[in-house]
């Protein structure tokens, strides 16, 4: 049976045990709706749940452009080796250990296309952490250590034509002209998408277009993950 959004809310809430903390990952290709689904899920759980929820995207662990230039990797920004995967795994371990009153996580500012250190505050009261990113199901090195900290990983997928169209629109929204956006999506982003698609069968649950498309329809496009997370903290 294809899960509904309400089913996802119930499943996510059930991960949290009395006195414990749960970490839920949402993986998927670029433009598949991971952030949109995560934000909608967090918003609903904040409304109905008896516990606080925090959203900690993987995007905060992008290497800065200056470092990508030094490494010669800026032309394929978004590939697995353009992230601080070890730092991401270490943050998830800190959140899993649940020993600190407050943990700061980096955010990602899409207008600048740069990570922002200490942008997201995760209080100890947050009993469910929702994290999302392309590479949560990779088995290589630090990515495997990150996966080990997560109770479940869901795989978010969208019809390919819709995914590409939305991804081009996102690149245009944040400054690329149309031709540059299309070239990036069909080049760098597509190589990453194919790598991610190969991890689909490792997910605990696949969230298909019926739910993901609804999430896009009901969630406003624009702004930044940092800004939306800050709004929830107020």
Give a structural overview.
InterPro entries: AAA+_ATPase, P-loop_NTPase. It comes from Streptomyces sp. NBC_01393. Keywords: Kinase, Transferase. GO terms for molecular function: kinase activity. This protein has 234 residues and is an alpha/beta fold. The protein has a single domain, classed as Rossmann fold (3-Layer(aba) Sandwich). It has nine helices and seven strands. It has a five-stranded parallel sheet with strand order 2-5-1-6-7, with helices on both faces. It has a two-stranded antiparallel sheet with strand order 3-4. The termini are far apart. The C terminus is likely disordered.
List the helices and strands and how they pair.
Blueprint: H1 5-14, E1 22-27, H2 34-48, E2 52-55, H3 65-71, H4 85-97, E3 102-109, E4 114-123, E5 126-132, H5 141-148, E6 152-156, H6 160-173, H7 178-197, E7 205-207, H8 209-218, H9 225-233
Parallel strand pairs: 1-5, 1-6, 2-5, 6-7
Antiparallel strand pairs: 3-4
Helix pairs in contact: 2-8, 4-5, 6-7
CATH architecture term: 3-Layer(aba) Sandwich
Could you state the order of secondary-structure elements as H and E? HEHEHHEEEHEHHEHH
Low-confidence stretches: 219-234
- Widest beta sheet: strand line-up: 2-5-1-6-7
Computed structural class? alpha/beta
Distance, first to last CA: 38 Å
CATH superfamily: P-loop containing nucleotide triphosphate hydrolases
Q: What is the mean predicted local confidence, pLDDT? A: 89
CATH topology term: Rossmann fold
Q: What is the gyration radius calculated from CA atoms?
A: 17 Å
Number of strands: 7
Protein name: Nucleoside/nucleotide kinase family protein
Keywords: Kinase, Transferase
Organism: Streptomyces sp. NBC_01393
GO molecular function: kinase activity
